[in-house]
Specification:
The chain is mostly helical. The protein has 2 domains: about 200 residues, no CATH class; about 200 residues, no CATH class. Helices cover about 85% and strands about 0% of the residues. The protein is built from 16 helices and no strands. The protein is globular and about 60 Å long. The two termini are about 15 Å apart.
Protein backbone atom coordinates (compact mmCIF):
# COMPACT_ATOMS: atom_id res chain seq x y z
CA UNK A 1 0.00 0.00 0.00
CA UNK A 2 2.82 2.40 0.84
CA UNK A 3 4.14 2.12 -2.72
CA UNK A 4 0.84 3.37 -4.14
CA UNK A 5 0.78 6.13 -1.55
CA UNK A 6 4.25 7.28 -2.60
CA UNK A 7 3.12 7.42 -6.24
CA UNK A 8 0.08 9.46 -5.24
CA UNK A 9 2.26 11.74 -3.13
CA UNK A 10 4.65 12.33 -6.04
CA UNK A 11 1.77 13.30 -8.35
CA UNK A 12 0.29 15.43 -5.59
CA UNK A 13 3.64 17.11 -4.98
CA UNK A 14 3.97 17.91 -8.69
CA UNK A 15 0.45 19.37 -8.84
CA UNK A 16 0.63 21.27 -5.60
CA UNK A 17 4.20 22.29 -6.45
CA UNK A 18 2.84 24.10 -9.52
CA UNK A 19 0.22 25.74 -7.29
CA UNK A 20 2.88 26.70 -4.75
CA UNK A 21 5.12 28.17 -7.45
CA UNK A 22 2.39 30.38 -8.89
CA UNK A 23 1.20 31.27 -5.39
CA UNK A 24 4.75 32.19 -4.39
CA UNK A 25 5.15 34.38 -7.49
CA UNK A 26 1.87 36.12 -6.62
CA UNK A 27 2.91 36.56 -2.98
CA UNK A 28 6.26 38.01 -4.04
CA UNK A 29 4.88 40.18 -6.85
CA UNK A 30 1.97 41.91 -5.09
CA UNK A 31 4.06 43.71 -2.41
CA UNK A 32 6.52 44.84 -5.10
CA UNK A 33 3.75 46.20 -7.31
CA UNK A 34 1.22 47.57 -4.79
CA UNK A 35 1.30 49.59 -1.61
CA UNK A 36 0.89 47.69 1.66
CA UNK A 37 -2.68 49.09 1.92
CA UNK A 38 -3.59 47.73 -1.52
CA UNK A 39 -1.99 44.36 -0.72
CA UNK A 40 -4.18 44.23 2.39
CA UNK A 41 -7.28 44.95 0.29
CA UNK A 42 -6.44 42.21 -2.22
CA UNK A 43 -5.94 39.57 0.46
CA UNK A 44 -9.01 40.66 2.39
CA UNK A 45 -11.07 40.37 -0.81
CA UNK A 46 -9.68 36.83 -1.24
CA UNK A 47 -10.56 36.01 2.38
CA UNK A 48 -14.13 37.26 1.98
CA UNK A 49 -14.31 35.30 -1.28
CA UNK A 50 -13.30 32.15 0.60
CA UNK A 51 -16.13 32.83 3.06
CA UNK A 52 -18.65 33.27 0.24
CA UNK A 53 -17.46 30.07 -1.44
CA UNK A 54 -18.56 28.13 1.65
CA UNK A 55 -22.16 29.17 1.08
CA UNK A 56 -21.88 28.61 -2.68
CA UNK A 57 -20.86 24.95 -2.26
CA UNK A 58 -23.10 24.27 0.77
CA UNK A 59 -21.05 21.40 2.21
CA UNK A 60 -20.98 19.43 -1.06
CA UNK A 61 -17.17 19.21 -1.05
CA UNK A 62 -17.12 17.32 2.24
CA UNK A 63 -20.04 15.15 1.12
CA UNK A 64 -17.84 14.13 -1.81
CA UNK A 65 -15.11 13.22 0.68
CA UNK A 66 -17.45 10.80 2.41
CA UNK A 67 -18.64 9.36 -0.93
CA UNK A 68 -15.11 8.26 -1.83
CA UNK A 69 -14.68 6.37 1.40
CA UNK A 70 -18.01 4.57 1.63
CA UNK A 71 -19.76 4.25 -1.76
CA UNK A 72 -19.64 1.67 -4.57
CA UNK A 73 -18.10 2.57 -7.94
CA UNK A 74 -21.51 2.78 -9.64
CA UNK A 75 -22.86 5.08 -6.96
CA UNK A 76 -19.75 7.27 -7.18
CA UNK A 77 -20.29 7.83 -10.92
CA UNK A 78 -23.93 8.75 -10.33
CA UNK A 79 -23.02 11.14 -7.52
CA UNK A 80 -20.32 12.78 -9.68
CA UNK A 81 -22.92 13.78 -12.27
CA UNK A 82 -25.13 15.15 -9.52
CA UNK A 83 -22.22 17.08 -7.99
CA UNK A 84 -21.51 18.79 -11.33
CA UNK A 85 -25.09 19.98 -11.81
CA UNK A 86 -25.68 20.96 -8.20
CA UNK A 87 -22.44 22.91 -7.89
CA UNK A 88 -23.08 24.95 -11.05
CA UNK A 89 -26.73 25.70 -10.30
CA UNK A 90 -26.13 26.63 -6.67
CA UNK A 91 -22.98 28.60 -7.49
CA UNK A 92 -24.73 30.68 -10.18
CA UNK A 93 -27.74 31.26 -7.94
CA UNK A 94 -25.54 32.39 -5.06
CA UNK A 95 -23.47 34.71 -7.28
CA UNK A 96 -26.62 36.29 -8.76
CA UNK A 97 -28.07 36.87 -5.28
CA UNK A 98 -24.80 38.37 -4.05
CA UNK A 99 -24.55 40.79 -7.00
CA UNK A 100 -28.14 41.90 -6.41
CA UNK A 101 -27.49 42.36 -2.67
CA UNK A 102 -24.32 44.40 -3.16
CA UNK A 103 -25.41 46.60 -6.07
CA UNK A 104 -29.09 47.23 -5.32
CA UNK A 105 -30.07 46.42 -1.73
CA UNK A 106 -27.17 47.33 0.57
CA UNK A 107 -25.89 50.89 1.03
CA UNK A 108 -22.25 51.53 0.10
CA UNK A 109 -19.77 50.61 2.85
CA UNK A 110 -22.30 48.88 5.11
CA UNK A 111 -20.53 45.48 5.07
CA UNK A 112 -17.12 45.65 6.80
CA UNK A 113 -16.63 49.16 5.46
CA UNK A 114 -15.89 47.68 2.02
CA UNK A 115 -16.87 49.36 -1.23
CA UNK A 116 -19.36 47.67 -3.55
CA UNK A 117 -16.48 47.09 -6.00
CA UNK A 118 -14.50 45.15 -3.39
CA UNK A 119 -17.59 43.13 -2.45
CA UNK A 120 -18.33 42.32 -6.09
CA UNK A 121 -14.71 41.20 -6.49
CA UNK A 122 -15.12 38.93 -3.44
CA UNK A 123 -18.36 37.51 -4.84
CA UNK A 124 -16.74 36.60 -8.15
CA UNK A 125 -13.83 35.01 -6.28
CA UNK A 126 -16.27 33.14 -4.04
CA UNK A 127 -17.98 31.60 -7.06
CA UNK A 128 -14.62 30.65 -8.60
CA UNK A 129 -13.28 29.14 -5.37
CA UNK A 130 -16.47 27.12 -4.85
CA UNK A 131 -16.19 25.61 -8.35
CA UNK A 132 -12.47 24.95 -7.78
CA UNK A 133 -13.16 23.10 -4.50
CA UNK A 134 -15.76 20.93 -6.25
CA UNK A 135 -13.40 20.16 -9.14
CA UNK A 136 -10.67 19.32 -6.63
CA UNK A 137 -12.95 16.67 -5.11
CA UNK A 138 -14.10 15.34 -8.50
CA UNK A 139 -10.54 14.80 -9.70
CA UNK A 140 -9.65 13.23 -6.37
CA UNK A 141 -12.59 10.82 -6.69
CA UNK A 142 -11.28 9.89 -10.16
CA UNK A 143 -7.84 9.20 -8.71
CA UNK A 144 -6.25 12.05 -10.73
CA UNK A 145 -4.16 13.40 -7.89
CA UNK A 146 -2.09 15.73 -10.09
CA UNK A 147 -5.10 17.40 -11.74
CA UNK A 148 -6.89 17.65 -8.42
CA UNK A 149 -3.89 19.31 -6.83
CA UNK A 150 -3.53 21.65 -9.80
CA UNK A 151 -7.18 22.68 -9.82
CA UNK A 152 -7.21 23.98 -6.26
CA UNK A 153 -5.43 27.31 -6.44
CA UNK A 154 -3.32 27.18 -9.60
CA UNK A 155 -5.67 28.84 -12.05
CA UNK A 156 -7.03 31.65 -9.91
CA UNK A 157 -3.52 32.52 -8.67
CA UNK A 158 -2.21 32.48 -12.24
CA UNK A 159 -5.02 34.65 -13.60
CA UNK A 160 -4.60 37.25 -10.82
CA UNK A 161 -0.80 37.15 -11.23
CA UNK A 162 -1.02 37.85 -14.98
CA UNK A 163 -4.07 40.07 -15.28
CA UNK A 164 -3.79 42.38 -12.25
CA UNK A 165 -0.38 43.89 -13.18
CA UNK A 166 -1.47 44.27 -16.82
CA UNK A 167 -4.69 46.02 -15.86
CA UNK A 168 -2.96 48.32 -13.37
CA UNK A 169 -0.25 49.19 -15.91
CA UNK A 170 -3.01 50.07 -18.39
CA UNK A 171 -4.09 52.84 -15.93
CA UNK A 172 -7.45 51.20 -15.33
CA UNK A 173 -7.22 52.00 -11.61
CA UNK A 174 -6.79 49.60 -8.70
CA UNK A 175 -10.50 49.09 -7.87
CA UNK A 176 -11.57 48.26 -11.43
CA UNK A 177 -8.42 46.20 -12.03
CA UNK A 178 -9.21 43.99 -9.03
CA UNK A 179 -12.83 43.57 -10.16
CA UNK A 180 -11.87 42.62 -13.72
CA UNK A 181 -9.18 40.21 -12.52
CA UNK A 182 -11.68 38.45 -10.24
CA UNK A 183 -14.17 38.30 -13.11
CA UNK A 184 -11.57 36.54 -15.24
CA UNK A 185 -10.92 34.08 -12.40
CA UNK A 186 -14.62 33.14 -12.28
CA UNK A 187 -14.75 32.68 -16.08
CA UNK A 188 -11.72 30.35 -15.98
CA UNK A 189 -13.25 28.31 -13.13
CA UNK A 190 -16.51 27.92 -15.05
CA UNK A 191 -14.61 26.89 -18.19
CA UNK A 192 -12.71 24.25 -16.20
CA UNK A 193 -15.97 22.75 -14.90
CA UNK A 194 -17.45 22.64 -18.42
CA UNK A 195 -14.25 21.05 -19.75
CA UNK A 196 -14.31 18.39 -17.02
CA UNK A 197 -17.97 17.65 -17.80
CA UNK A 198 -17.23 17.31 -21.52
CA UNK A 199 -14.33 14.91 -20.92
CA UNK A 200 -16.50 12.75 -18.65
CA UNK A 201 -19.61 12.77 -20.84
CA UNK A 202 -21.49 14.77 -18.23
CA UNK A 203 -22.45 17.90 -20.22
CA UNK A 204 -26.16 17.04 -19.92
CA UNK A 205 -25.68 17.11 -16.13
CA UNK A 206 -24.53 20.74 -16.02
CA UNK A 207 -27.93 21.99 -14.91
CA UNK A 208 -29.15 18.83 -13.22
CA UNK A 209 -30.60 19.71 -9.81
CA UNK A 210 -31.66 16.20 -8.78
CA UNK A 211 -28.70 15.72 -6.47
CA UNK A 212 -29.05 18.90 -4.44
CA UNK A 213 -31.14 17.33 -1.69
CA UNK A 214 -28.68 14.40 -1.37
CA UNK A 215 -25.45 16.39 -1.57
CA UNK A 216 -26.13 19.57 0.37
CA UNK A 217 -25.30 19.09 4.04
CA UNK A 218 -26.20 21.66 6.67
CA UNK A 219 -23.76 20.09 9.13
CA UNK A 220 -20.89 20.08 6.66
CA UNK A 221 -21.77 23.67 5.73
CA UNK A 222 -21.60 24.65 9.39
CA UNK A 223 -18.35 22.71 9.77
CA UNK A 224 -16.77 24.59 6.83
CA UNK A 225 -17.99 27.93 8.19
CA UNK A 226 -16.56 27.26 11.65
CA UNK A 227 -13.26 26.11 10.15
CA UNK A 228 -13.16 29.33 8.12
CA UNK A 229 -13.66 31.36 11.30
CA UNK A 230 -10.70 29.61 12.90
CA UNK A 231 -8.42 30.06 9.90
CA UNK A 232 -9.45 33.57 8.77
CA UNK A 233 -10.79 35.36 11.87
CA UNK A 234 -7.37 36.98 12.29
CA UNK A 235 -7.89 38.98 9.08
CA UNK A 236 -11.09 40.52 10.42
CA UNK A 237 -9.60 41.40 13.80
CA UNK A 238 -6.52 42.96 12.16
CA UNK A 239 -8.81 45.00 9.89
CA UNK A 240 -10.85 46.09 12.93
CA UNK A 241 -7.98 46.90 15.32
CA UNK A 242 -5.03 47.70 13.04
CA UNK A 243 -4.64 49.04 9.47
CA UNK A 244 -4.87 47.80 5.88
CA UNK A 245 -1.09 48.21 5.63
CA UNK A 246 -0.53 45.89 8.61
CA UNK A 247 -3.08 43.49 7.14
CA UNK A 248 -1.04 43.47 3.92
CA UNK A 249 2.13 42.52 5.82
CA UNK A 250 0.37 39.85 7.88
CA UNK A 251 -1.49 38.34 4.92
CA UNK A 252 1.73 38.11 2.90
CA UNK A 253 3.40 36.17 5.73
CA UNK A 254 0.39 33.90 6.11
CA UNK A 255 0.36 33.22 2.39
CA UNK A 256 4.00 32.16 2.60
CA UNK A 257 3.27 29.90 5.57
CA UNK A 258 0.31 28.28 3.83
CA UNK A 259 2.39 27.67 0.70
CA UNK A 260 5.05 25.97 2.81
CA UNK A 261 2.36 23.90 4.55
CA UNK A 262 0.91 22.78 1.21
CA UNK A 263 1.98 19.25 2.15
CA UNK A 264 -1.23 18.99 4.22
CA UNK A 265 -3.32 19.44 1.06
CA UNK A 266 -1.26 16.82 -0.75
CA UNK A 267 -1.86 14.32 2.06
CA UNK A 268 -5.59 15.09 1.94
CA UNK A 269 -5.58 14.09 -1.73
CA UNK A 270 -4.09 10.69 -0.96
CA UNK A 271 -5.63 9.66 2.38
CA UNK A 272 -9.30 9.17 1.34
CA UNK A 273 -8.35 6.61 -1.31
CA UNK A 274 -5.93 4.90 1.11
CA UNK A 275 -8.72 4.63 3.68
CA UNK A 276 -11.22 3.26 1.17
CA UNK A 277 -8.81 0.62 -0.16
CA UNK A 278 -7.94 -0.51 3.37
CA UNK A 279 -11.64 -0.64 4.29
CA UNK A 280 -12.46 -2.79 1.24
CA UNK A 281 -9.64 -5.20 2.12
CA UNK A 282 -10.56 -5.16 5.82
CA UNK A 283 -7.04 -4.03 6.67
CA UNK A 284 -7.66 -0.72 8.38
CA UNK A 285 -4.37 -1.08 10.30
CA UNK A 286 -2.50 -0.46 7.03
CA UNK A 287 -4.31 2.86 6.61
CA UNK A 288 -3.35 3.83 10.17
CA UNK A 289 0.33 3.29 9.39
CA UNK A 290 0.03 5.53 6.32
CA UNK A 291 -1.77 8.25 8.30
CA UNK A 292 0.98 8.26 10.93
CA UNK A 293 3.89 8.15 8.47
CA UNK A 294 2.56 11.04 6.41
CA UNK A 295 2.17 13.11 9.57
CA UNK A 296 5.76 12.34 10.59
CA UNK A 297 7.20 13.20 7.15
CA UNK A 298 5.29 16.48 7.09
CA UNK A 299 6.44 17.42 10.58
CA UNK A 300 10.11 16.79 9.75
CA UNK A 301 9.86 18.81 6.52
CA UNK A 302 8.18 21.69 8.37
CA UNK A 303 10.88 21.81 11.05
CA UNK A 304 13.65 21.84 8.42
CA UNK A 305 11.95 24.72 6.59
CA UNK A 306 11.55 26.63 9.85
CA UNK A 307 15.28 26.35 10.54
CA UNK A 308 16.22 27.45 7.01
CA UNK A 309 13.90 30.45 7.07
CA UNK A 310 15.08 31.40 10.54
CA UNK A 311 18.58 31.83 9.11
CA UNK A 312 17.82 33.53 5.80
CA UNK A 313 14.45 35.32 6.14
CA UNK A 314 15.84 38.80 6.92
CA UNK A 315 18.12 39.21 3.86
CA UNK A 316 15.48 37.65 1.59
CA UNK A 317 12.73 39.98 2.80
CA UNK A 318 14.97 43.05 2.55
CA UNK A 319 15.87 42.23 -1.04
CA UNK A 320 12.32 41.35 -2.12
CA UNK A 321 10.13 43.86 -0.31
CA UNK A 322 12.24 46.27 1.68
CA UNK A 323 12.21 47.08 5.40
CA UNK A 324 8.41 47.52 5.64
CA UNK A 325 7.96 43.73 5.70
CA UNK A 326 10.66 42.87 8.26
CA UNK A 327 8.13 42.87 11.17
CA UNK A 328 6.46 39.96 9.39
CA UNK A 329 9.36 37.57 10.06
CA UNK A 330 8.21 36.85 13.62
CA UNK A 331 4.68 36.30 12.29
CA UNK A 332 5.97 33.79 9.73
CA UNK A 333 7.92 31.84 12.36
CA UNK A 334 4.88 31.59 14.64
CA UNK A 335 2.65 30.39 11.80
CA UNK A 336 5.18 27.78 10.68
CA UNK A 337 5.41 26.47 14.23
CA UNK A 338 1.62 26.02 14.30
CA UNK A 339 1.62 24.05 11.05
CA UNK A 340 4.43 21.79 12.30
CA UNK A 341 2.61 21.02 15.56
CA UNK A 342 -0.68 20.48 13.73
CA UNK A 343 1.04 17.85 11.59
CA UNK A 344 2.54 16.23 14.68
CA UNK A 345 -0.99 15.59 15.99
CA UNK A 346 -1.85 13.72 12.78
CA UNK A 347 -4.72 13.83 10.29
CA UNK A 348 -7.54 13.29 12.79
CA UNK A 349 -9.80 15.78 11.02
CA UNK A 350 -9.63 13.74 7.81
CA UNK A 351 -10.34 10.55 9.80
CA UNK A 352 -13.52 12.09 11.23
CA UNK A 353 -14.60 13.35 7.79
CA UNK A 354 -14.11 9.91 6.24
CA UNK A 355 -16.15 8.34 9.04
CA UNK A 356 -18.82 11.06 8.64
CA UNK A 357 -18.63 11.92 12.33
CA UNK A 358 -20.20 15.34 11.91
CA UNK A 359 -21.17 15.76 15.56
CA UNK A 360 -17.59 15.44 16.80
CA UNK A 361 -16.34 17.81 14.12
CA UNK A 362 -18.93 20.44 14.98
CA UNK A 363 -18.51 20.14 18.76
CA UNK A 364 -14.74 20.61 18.58
CA UNK A 365 -15.13 23.46 16.09
CA UNK A 366 -17.64 25.37 18.22
CA UNK A 367 -15.37 25.20 21.25
CA UNK A 368 -12.25 26.26 19.33
CA UNK A 369 -14.04 29.12 17.53
CA UNK A 370 -14.89 30.57 20.94
CA UNK A 371 -11.25 30.26 21.98
CA UNK A 372 -10.13 31.79 18.67
CA UNK A 373 -12.30 34.88 19.12
CA UNK A 374 -11.24 35.28 22.76
CA UNK A 375 -7.54 35.03 21.86
CA UNK A 376 -7.89 37.53 19.01
CA UNK A 377 -9.72 40.02 21.22
CA UNK A 378 -7.09 39.73 23.95
CA UNK A 379 -3.92 39.56 21.84
CA UNK A 380 -4.41 41.50 18.58
CA UNK A 381 -5.07 45.00 20.04
CA UNK A 382 -2.15 44.67 22.48
CA UNK A 383 0.52 42.77 20.52
CA UNK A 384 -0.47 43.64 16.97
CA UNK A 385 0.53 41.23 14.21
CA UNK A 386 2.35 38.77 16.49
CA UNK A 387 -0.73 38.69 18.74
CA UNK A 388 -2.92 37.78 15.75
CA UNK A 389 -0.40 35.09 14.73
CA UNK A 390 -0.41 33.56 18.22
CA UNK A 391 -4.23 33.63 18.28
CA UNK A 392 -4.41 31.78 14.95
CA UNK A 393 -1.69 29.31 15.93
CA UNK A 394 -3.15 28.56 19.35
CA UNK A 395 -6.59 27.91 17.88
CA UNK A 396 -5.26 25.66 15.10
CA UNK A 397 -3.09 23.59 17.46
CA UNK A 398 -5.91 23.24 20.00
CA UNK A 399 -8.33 22.04 17.31
CA UNK A 400 -5.97 19.28 16.12
CA UNK A 401 -5.18 18.24 19.67
CA UNK A 402 -8.87 17.89 20.59
CA UNK A 403 -9.59 15.87 17.44
CA UNK A 404 -6.61 13.58 18.01
CA UNK A 405 -7.74 12.82 21.58
CA UNK A 406 -11.33 12.22 20.44
CA UNK A 407 -10.29 9.83 17.66
CA UNK A 408 -8.15 7.94 20.16
CA UNK A 409 -11.05 7.50 22.57
CA UNK A 410 -13.83 6.93 20.03
CA UNK A 411 -12.10 4.66 17.50
CA UNK A 412 -9.22 3.36 19.63
CA UNK A 413 -6.70 4.46 16.98
CA UNK A 414 -3.61 6.59 17.44
CA UNK A 415 -3.00 9.02 14.55
CA UNK A 416 -0.16 11.06 16.05
CA UNK A 417 2.96 11.05 13.88
CA UNK A 418 4.97 7.82 13.97
CA UNK A 419 6.62 5.47 11.47
CA UNK A 420 4.82 2.28 12.57
Amino acid sequence: MMQGVIGGLVRGVLGRGCVALVGLLLTVTLPRMLSTDEVGRVYFAISVGALLSIFARLGMDNTANAITANASDALIQDRKRQIIGASLVLGMAFLSAWVLLVTVILPEGLLLGLSSTDLLSSGLLGFALAISYILFQLYRIDGHVFLGALTRGFFHNLVILVSLPLLISASVGFDLSLLLACGLVSIVALANLILYSARNGALPSLFDTSGISRLVSARFLLYSFLLYLITDADYYFIKAYLSDAELGIYASMKRLAVLIAIYIDIAHLVLPRVYRNALNRERISEALVVFRRLALLGFVASVVLMLVLGLYASPIFLRLWGPDYLPGISVLNILLLSFALSLAFGFSEMWLLLNENKNALLASMVFVVGMCFALNIMLTPVYGLTGAAWAFSGSSILLRLIMMIYVRRKYNVWLMMWWR
